[in-house]
Amino acid sequence: MPLPFVPRTLPLKIVAPLVSGIILSIVVMVYATLGFNRLDLQNRSASGILEMQSALTQVLLVVVDAETGQRGYLLTGIPEYLEPYKAATERYQKSFRELLKLVRTHGTIDQRERLARLNTLAGNKQFEMESTIALFDTGNRDAAIAVINTGNGKRTMDALRAEYDQLQLELEREVNTGVQRWDDDIEFARLGMFMMTAFTVALLVVVWILARREIATREDQRRRVASERDRLDLEIRERTAELAELSTHLHVVQETERAKLARDIHDELGSILVSAKMDVAWVQDRLRRKDPENSAKLERALGTLDDGVDIKRRIIEELRPTLLDNLGLSAALEWQLHEICDKAKIACQICLPDGDDSALPPSQSIALYRILQESLTNVVKYAQAKKVNVSFDLTSDGVSLTIEDDGVGIPERVSDHRLSHGIAGMRQRVRAFDGEFSITRRPEGGTIIKVRLPLQRSDEKKAGTETAPA
Fold it and tell me: Per the domain annotation, does 249 fall within a domain?
């Protein structure tokens, strides 16, 4: 019975959320990537601004240090006070170059212009400090003090600090703007992650539901398949048992018909041939002196009748061996072995039990006899053997028969081939008695057939209970 088809396509109400969730996940992923890039840009920009603030503060501190050293020298005249001035003067160019580089990289045009003004003011302040120091070194201390008292240096310094404060204010604004953007991007990324997580959970729930339905469907299908398989197995076993019983019955019928036919041939054809031979012999005896020519013809007729009697006996032996019924299985097996092997010019040897085999049921006797007959026929036809060994053993619990030859050996898988009717017939005869049958290829070459049947004390239901005529 064919199994019902289980559709594999998902309904639209399930596909639509899945597709929407996938598209939304891709969009969120793209936006998150862009947000990460913006955050990275803001981070680099904030780092640059902080470096600009630090460099700007460093430039202002250098100018302040130089001014402090200048005034200390002018007030005390001690040369050691010039050391901070000289050091600050040397550091100024380096600090300013670093600040200019940062402004060109991270700053705006207005910031670069403001930095240029700041540099100009710093240059004016440096010129004023160099002038006063030069006047002081030439002995014009009063002139140097007068230059300071003019207030130009103070105004220059105030303007420089104003530019510094304005530039710092702009940088601070940029930092605050960047922080605000940073916070906005993080908040949106958090919202995106929340939405993505929510849809992921929803998708997982949908997948879980679909998985449960799929598992339930497959489990139901598995149960139906298992039930169908069990039903088919039971049907196969029943059909196999029926076929085995039918095969056994056919063997029973075959052996019964053979025995009946052998008896009929013996009783009817045998009596006809004997009567005809007696009449021909009587006539031939009367004509021997009077009509030698016709007497010779009758002599040939007697020889023909003898040949007919021999053919009758051979047919009876093939249909139902009389040795099997009169002398037992051992004698029948030995006669059959020599009968076939001697004609084929194959050396043979048989090992028989010492005990009496009369307790063996007739059905098993005829089964073993037919197995030997079929095996020897195969040896003669296919094996190309030079020697055949047969072993027959009878014990209290069973009977065994082993047939070995030194031929080419049975081909691989032939014993399992469905068209190997001879082997199948032997196997079925053994199966009818719940016995064991095996046919294998010997390692040294040739084939070995092993049969073992459990000994049956009751033979009421088996084949071959009828005996052939003596």
Answer: no
